[in-house]
Amino acid sequence: EVFVNPNHYDPIDYSNWWVDSSKTPKMNATMVSLVRNNELGDMLRSIEQFEASFNHKYHYDWVFLNDVEFTPRFIKAIKEKVSGEAKFGLVPKEHWSYPDFIDQDKAAQARIDMQNIIYGSSESYRFMCRYQSGFFWRHELMLDYDWYWRVEPSTKYPCDIPDDLFKYMNDNQKAYGFTLSLHEYEETIPSLFDSVLNFTNEHPEYIPHKNFASFVSEDQGETYNGCHYWSNFEVANLNLWRSKQYGEFFDYLDQRGGFFYERHGDAPVHSLFASIFLPMDKIEYLNIGYYHGPFWNIPYAVESISASEEDLLEKTKDKFTSQNCQMDPRVDFTSNGFSCGNLYFSLNKLKSLKTVPEEDA
Ligand code: GDP
Ligand code: MN
User: Fold this and answer.
1) Which of 51, 184, 234, 262 is catalytic?
2) pTM reported for the whole predicted model
3) Which residue of 25, 161, 182, 232 has the smallest Cβ count within 10 Å?
4) What DSSP string runs through 285-303?
């Protein structure tokens, strides 16, 4: 049993992360998109859907980040679509380059050796993953906020989102929210779990008593099952990444070079940390209509394990109707085999439908 701390306390102090939301019309929150100039069209389409499903009700700010300057054309077109304030930031060079302890020849060789793995030969993809893992929350435009919602170009929001998810997270004292989850390609992270175990051995006092490590390891810490929250969608409290524990965790992984000598994604990095170092009740499945190619999350009803199939079907139909879902409900991925949704449900004593019968679709 690796992920067990017998002491009944929560090492990350989140006591001042939550506010009395009845005192404010909206949360101190922003959307954030890391995006390239040549993704303008895809970004605009995402914004259009996102505004229609959610943000037209709240007008939250939206921070756009890029490793090169945004063009005036990009800035003008985006500003016209975002209903809150749109802000545009340049990623500082030192957050998007090689740290001095990285052997760049070894990194170049890794890109050759990993040519047959998705993004394996890409240098920019590695800078991107390292940035999302360790730096986006340190950008000066992000410093004023408590919450963020990550939105990527080409993602879709095909249903109305009935609640202010930031408020929901705050009011229910949740720190990290996801919609889609799935298994990582093992070839991109051969040493990641070993690094995590080593870090954990050095800091067993960082493990909360009721953690969610069972979501990432189904054999008590022997192996990583690859399950990760898909980080193209995240609604989370920025203090999580600002915590001393995460800072040390990121530095530890960074020093070991896996962002460059392998191809560590920010999704498994965020997910392993959140699952192991947060109490499980701080992590929440946000069941909204969402698409990031090639997978959909369809808001099927999720109920306690004792719910009947009829009840689930009835509630699911109500959700589709009330949320105006604009797609075929049968494409849901969360209840599918390659997803980790079912593991999440069973660990939380929840259940959902496997699929919606054809006649109801
Ligand atoms: P995938 O979802 O893993 O296939 O990766 P994406 O290509 O969607 O990249 C993830 C996010 O990072 C998206 O929001 C991209 O727009 C952004 N991104 C990826 N590479 C770069 C880059 O080199 N520069 C900038 N500015 N954004 C990038
Ligand atoms: Mn993407």
Assistant:
1) 234
2) 0.97
3) 25
4) E----EEETTEEE----EE
